Amino acid sequence: MAMTGDRHSQLNLGELDERSRELFRQIVETYLETGDPVGSRTLSQRSTLALSPATIRNVMSDLEHMGLIASPHTSAGRLPTQRGLRLFVDGLLEIGGLAGTEQQAIETRLAGSGQDLEDVLTLATSMLSGLSRCAGLVVAPKSDAALKHVEFVAMGPGQALVVMVSEGGQIENRIIEIPPGLPPSALVEATNFLNARLRGRTLDEARREILEEVETQRVALDALTAKVVAQGLATWSAPPGSGDNGEAQLIVRGQAHLLDNVTAAEDIERIRMLFDDLESKKEMVSLLELAKDGSGVHIFIGSENKLFSLSGSSLIVAPYTNQRQKIVGVLGIIGPTRLNYARVIPMVDYTAKVVSRLLK
User: Fold this and answer.
1) Which of 148, 183, 280, 325 is 20 to 30 Å from 82 by CA-CA measure?
2) Strands 69-70, 147-156: parallel, antiparallel or unpaired by DSSP?
3) DSSP code of residue 294
4) What letter does residue 217 receive in the DSSP assignment?
5) 138: part of which helix (H) or strand (E)?
6) What are phi and psi of 28, to 5 degrees?
7) CA distances from 96 to 1, 75, 100, 128, 330 (A)
8) pLDDT digits (tens, 9 = 90+) for 143-197
9) CA gap 260, 23 in Å, rounded
């Protein structure tokens, strides 16, 4: 599977000799397994290399000088740094596929959620959270499905309801402002106009063409009907941060897992900031744009990017596509940097592929 992460890392495995690579790998694997600093005595017991504790200490000193490991406070052991974790994930991590039983479990649970897109994505988020013991998240598209029917319905003086039905059966409604005294025939004309141009296409695909057609008066719409069409498109295309986000929605489940084994005051404050970011849906559009940079799993460790308050956390996400092979969303997990990367990465990757298949 393709994986992308920090493109600015300057260190590569070629700068480590075989002995250093092996000891570094064992330090990281032991830390990910236990969560404890790793000392030379532990390494001498676990290592398959015939090295004395003194030699191991010398190698650890070199790794520390390179910024790959560090000593927490006064401990004699060492922990991998953010830079070290990135090098390990990029070059030393052995990732296998999910077991057949795990694949079947994911497919069965998601397929059993029904045809509703939001149900599938919400279940995928909860499932990833439960399997990884981290917070699961999904950035989901809004109104990206091909449309089957559009209708304007009068609501009262100055207001109308816009109903959009997708080919998959999803129904979304918005209330728009309409000119006072608008005759019912104008809503019928606006309905017919948009249905003729939107059926079988997404709103994004047709919006610019429709607006150009209206603005250049290439269609026989009276001024009031043209205003209704333009207002309907504008309301449905509300920009991010406008209060009615027409671009994407963020689904998060399992935030409580982020508090597991957190005791230090600074760690609690970091998690609180992350909760605030998730609650306010900050950066979710940036996350979707990040996924569109390419296929495969994206891995961000610590402060490698500015998405959310990620210092001390890792983000593993993969994009999913619709029936036209277009990337429309991203799903994954947020958790501590001490993750079982070998298990979580293929889990996120496979879940994204199953969601893509279901959307087709």
Assistant:
1) 280
2) unpaired
3) -
4) T
5) strand 135-141
6) -65, -45
7) 10, 34, 12, 18, 22
8) 556 788 889 998 878 888 888 888 767 777 788 888 888 888 999 999 998 998 8
9) 29
| Domains in the chain, CATH or no CATH each | 13-91 (1.10.10.10), 100-142+247-359 (3.30.450.40), 147-236 (3.30.390.10)
Which residues fall within 8 angstroms of residue 3, CB to CB, at 6 or more apart?
Answer: 89, 90, 296, 297, 298, 299, 345
Helix (H, G, I), strand (E, B), or coil: what is residue 161?
strand
What's the CA dihedral at 331, 336, 339, 341 to 10 degrees? 40
Site of tokens 């017919």: 192
> Which amino acid would we find at residue 282?
K
Q: In this structure, what are the phi and psi dihedrals at residue 77, rounded to the nearest 5 degrees?
A: -85, 175
Strand ranges, E, within the chain: 3-4, 69-70, 79-80, 135-141, 147-156, 159-166, 171-177, 248-253, 297-301, 313-321, 327-336
Let me know: does 299 contact 89? Beta carbons within 8 Å: yes
**Beta partners for 314?**
301, 335
Question: Is residue 117 classed as helix, strand or coil in its secondary structure?
Answer: helix
Selected residue with higher pLDDT from 104 and 322: 104
Residue 188: strand, helix, or coil? helix
36-45, 54-63, 193-202, range with greatest mean pLDDT: 54-63
d(CA 72, CA 79): 7
With a cut of 50, say whether residue 210 has pLDDT above it: yes
Distance CA 251, CA 136 (A): 8
Q: Tally the residues of the chain.
A: 360
User: What DSSP designation does 205 have?
Assistant: H
Q: How many CA atoms lie within 13 A of 45 on its CB side?
A: 5
